[in-house]
Specification:
alpha/beta, D-Maltodextrin-Binding Protein, domain 2, about 40% helix
Length: about 325
């Protein structure tokens, strides 16, 4: 047996021993989520509480993160559980940019809901399309966030890049809203649920416009990443936005380290399925989530523990 494999087995055995030991040697599960102001951070807190309550011998803590950073965190064992966007995670499994090599330590725990890319502009900016972004100031998330990558790819299909902007600020949702309110940015892009708390905050102070992505540009995005899905933001979701917005999005899912004990991941998956109602109280998009929907294949290999639960529950054959 190769030394590397021996090491993995020893780590897995130690984790399993801690898991069985219960409160005397509680295993801490780190959960990498998203930026404050988005949906992942509070949802991660709810998941941590469920794990601590339902899974004997564990405790859980929540860390800020982002789609791409979380993949790197799970892959390098800096965290046990991470929120992910399926398009980025599939890229990681294949070793496509921005990832240098294929991910080996990523496994699927469960699929939660669809996220929406949203491009918000100030109503008085004169911006009617992404084509009008040239020469304007933009607020976007830091690199390592899937929303930031999606922004660059959206610009790409319009023949634009950050170099065409007057200024690009890589900031949190809350800081982006502050820049928009003060008029220091005219464009704010992000990927999150609908309605987004950050956009509602902005709309309470400034008149806004939410941009659509036409079909030809969406097809261009799919050529870059086939995991993008068409999404529609209903009219009236945001103040002053009285038309349907055609956008694109990706699935939010939970990933875990491949070397976590099967029984531990089985127990976590079962606990989350049992407590969907409490998750739905935090993020409405999770409300009514079924075991079958949790088991939806986003292109990431299932962890054996999660797979065992889904099969027992009849969600997978």
């Amino acid at each position: 047996m190769k030394p590397g494999k021996v090491g993995v087995l020893l780590v897995a055995g130690l984790l399993f021993g801690l898991f069985l030991a219960g409160g005397a040697a509680a295993m801490e599960l780190r959960i990498m989520t998203g930026p404050q102001g988005g949906s992942w951070y509070p949802l991660g807190g709810a998941i941590a509480e469920i794990i601590k309550k339902e899974v004997q011998g564990t405790t859980a803590s929540v860390l800020p993160g982002a789609g791409i950073i979380n993949i790197q965190g799970v892959e390098s064992s800096r965290t046990e559980i991470g929120f992910g966007n399926s398009v980025s995670t599939v890229d990681a499994m294949a070793g496509r940019e921005p990832f240098k090599t294929p991910a080996k330590n990523i496994r699927q725990l469960g699929t939660l809901y669809m996220q929406y890319f949203q491009a918000v502009v100030l109503a008085d900016s004169g911006i009617k399309s992404v084509a009008d972004f040239k020469g304007k100031s933009m607020a976007v998330q830091p690199r390592g966030n899937t929303g930031e990558q999606m922004t660059r790819e959206l610009l790409q299909v319009y023949g634009l890049s950050y170099k065409d902007m007057a200024k690009v600020s890589h900031v949190s949702y809350n800081d982006a809203v502050a820049l928009m309110k003060d008029g220091h940015a005219q464009i704010f892009t992000l990927i999150t649920t609908v309605p987004a708390a950050a956009i509602l905050d902005l709309a309470s102070a400034r008149k806004i416009r939410i941009l659509s992505v036409p079909e030809d540009k969406f097809k261009g995005l799919q050529k870059i990443n086939s995991g993008y899905s068409r999404r529609e933001i209903p009219k009236g979701i945001y103040p002053g936005v009285e038309h349907e917005v055609q956008q694109f999005g990706t699935y939010t899912h939970l990933m875990v380290r491949a070397d976590l004990p099967d029984d531990l991941v089985y127990a976590i998956t079962k606990a989350l399925a049992k407590n969907v109602d409490s998750l739905g109280a935090v993020v409405k998009d999770v409300k009514g989530l079924t075991v079958k929907e949790m088991a939806f294949d986003v292109g990431v290999p299932y962890h054996p523990g999660a797979l065992k639960f889904y099969k027992e529950a009849g969600a997978l054959k």
